[in-house]
């Protein structure tokens, strides 16, 4: 109880926090918000049915703007609210723009396009973030950083601000996977309070419309080699109903990360399956192979053939996905594998490699055919070399046609 009381006292001692407040039509917007001149800071708040909190959020931001004499604007993006959120936001002095297409990303993309500031601060309009920290986000940008991320886990998290499953399972897993795949170094990749420069915004090429927008920003910032800073922040229980759907939105983040990382989705699993299958085929070619007290025979060889072909097909899809991500500006030019393929992976070389693999399979099939002729086209027991030859022929043909397809994608890349 004493800990909770101390926390409440500390919060009360700080500058006014956003709380639910009625509309105040008598309050005029500060000149820095509505003036058509240059604006240094744009504070963008997405809003979907936040009438319980939006007025208090705007009041708190205006207090900070006045106290610190910031050249700033407050921009509220009405994301097709069905309550009085937009009306309240206008009455409290914010500039309101409408985004009828619902979605976390859609709202922010509209707000960023409308923002006039050199620096852009984004935060939820649900009372969870402390707007006293706005200048702490701007300071690193003035020092040369491109993106500043809040870290709720390293700061003060009030009781009830985040569910146990989100705090100890969902966020750590998703942030860990994001760091594993993209090496961002960000511990709280889904914190909603962030700041960035306008130049950084254009370099991030943001496009997703849902909750995965939060992951896309961090991923694209890392791909663009932007300088990212992370600072601890306070996090409080939200006012109003939550718009987050744990399983659906968690899956959207995971799906997005996988789609944005063809290496982990395609290449690594595919290469493992291909090599494992080829190794098993080679070991089983002479005859049954003893392992774990059993003699692995023809059925295992058939399975190895299947694994090899599946793995190789996955690798081919992964290479195509890597080229597609480059042509669609989903990936940076720093992709070393694609640079190597550009230099070494010509159509002619792909055809040559595929042709050699196919020829090896045909030669092996030729030995099988010769044995069949040797027994006067009678019963034949050459299943092992036949399976091996079939696998090689399939791999060779896939390589040749894959080389044609990659060349087609390369033509698309050169035209972009």
Ordered list of secondary-structure elements with their pairings:
Elements: H1 2-13, H2 31-34, E1 39-47, H3 54-68, E2 72-78, H4 85-91, E3 95-98, H5 104-114, E4 117-122, H6 134-142, E5 147-151, H7 164-182, E6 194-197, H8 198-204, H9 213-223, E7 228-232, H10 246-259, H11 262-284, E8 289-291, E9 294-296, H12 298-327, H13 336-344, H14 347-374, H15 383-415
Helix pairs in contact: 7-10, 11-12, 12-15, 14-15
What key attributes describe this structure?
416 residues; alpha/beta; Spore Coat Polysaccharide Biosynthesis Protein SpsA, Chain A; 2 domains; 7-stranded mixed beta sheet
How far apart are the first and last residues' alpha carbons, in Å?
A: 62 Å
Structural class: alpha/beta
Portion of residues in beta strands equals 5-15%
Domains counted in the coordinates: how many?
A: 2
- CATH fold-type name of the largest domain: Spore Coat Polysaccharide Biosynthesis Protein SpsA, Chain A
Low-confidence stretches: 1-37
Number of strands: 9
Cα Rg: 29 Å
Helical content (DSSP H or I, runs of 4+): 55-70%
Q: How many H/I helices?
A: 15
Largest sheet: 7 strands, mixed
| Named CATH architecture of the largest domain | Alpha-Beta Complex
CATH class of the largest domain: Alpha Beta
Look at the structure and give the mean pLDDT: 85
In spatial order, strands of the major sheet run: 3-2-1-4-6-5-7
The string of secondary-structure elements, in order, is HHEHEHEHEHEHEHHEHHEEHHHH
Global morphology: elongated
| Fourth CATH level, the homologous superfamily of the largest domain | Spore Coat Polysaccharide Biosynthesis Protein SpsA, Chain A
């Amino acid at each position: 109880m004493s800990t909770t009381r101390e926390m409440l006292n500390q919060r009360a001692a700080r500058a006014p926090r956003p709380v639910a407040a009625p509309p105040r039509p008598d309050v005029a917007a500060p000149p820095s918000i509505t003036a058509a001149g240059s604006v240094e800071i744009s504070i963008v708040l997405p809003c979907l049915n936040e009438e319980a909190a939006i007025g208090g959020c705007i009041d708190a931001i205006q207090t900070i703007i006045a106290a610190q004499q910031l050249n700033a604007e407050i921009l509220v993006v009405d994301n097709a609210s069905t309550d009085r959120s937009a009306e309240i936001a206008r009455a409290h002095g914010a500039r309101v723009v409408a985004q009828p297409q619902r979605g976390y990303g859609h709202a922010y993309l509209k707000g960023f396009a409308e923002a006039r500031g050199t620096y852009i601060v984004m935060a939820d309009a649900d009372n969870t973030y402390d707007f006293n920290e706005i200048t702490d986000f701007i300071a690193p940008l003035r020092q040369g950083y491109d993106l500043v991320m809040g870290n709720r886990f390293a700061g003060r998290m009030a009781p009830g601000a985040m569910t146990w499953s989100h705090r100890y399972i969902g966020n750590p897993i998703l942030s860990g996977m994001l760091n594993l795949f993209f090496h961002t170094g960000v511990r709280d990749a889904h914190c909603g309070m962030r700041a960035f420069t306008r130049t950084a915004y254009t370099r991030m090429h943001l496009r997703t419309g849902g909750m995965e927008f939060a992951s896309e920003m961090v991923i694209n910032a890392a791909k663009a080699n932007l300088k990212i800073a992370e600072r601890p922040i306070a996090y409080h229980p939200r006012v109003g109903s939550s718009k987050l759907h744990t399983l659906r939105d968690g899956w959207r983040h995971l799906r997005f990360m996988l789609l944005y990382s063809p290496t982990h989705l395609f290449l690594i699993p595919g290469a493992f399956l291909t090599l494992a299958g080829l190794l098993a085929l080679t070991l089983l070619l002479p005859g049954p192979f003893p392992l774990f007290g059993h003699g692995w025979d023809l059925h295992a060889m058939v399975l190895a053939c299947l694994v090899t072909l599946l793995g190789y097909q996955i690798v081919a899809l992964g290479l195509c996905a890597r080229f597609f991500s480059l042509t669609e500006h989903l990936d940076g030019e720093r992709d070393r594998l694609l640079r190597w393929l550009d230099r070494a992976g010509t159509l002619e070389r792909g055809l040559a490699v595929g042709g050699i693999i196919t020829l090896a399979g045909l030669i092996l099939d030729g030995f099988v055919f010769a044995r069949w002729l040797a027994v006067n086209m009678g019963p034949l027991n050459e299943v092992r070399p036949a399976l091996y030859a079939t696998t090689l022929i399939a791999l060779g043909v896939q390589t040749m046609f894959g080389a044609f397809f990659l060349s087609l994608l390369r033509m698309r890349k050169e035209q972009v």
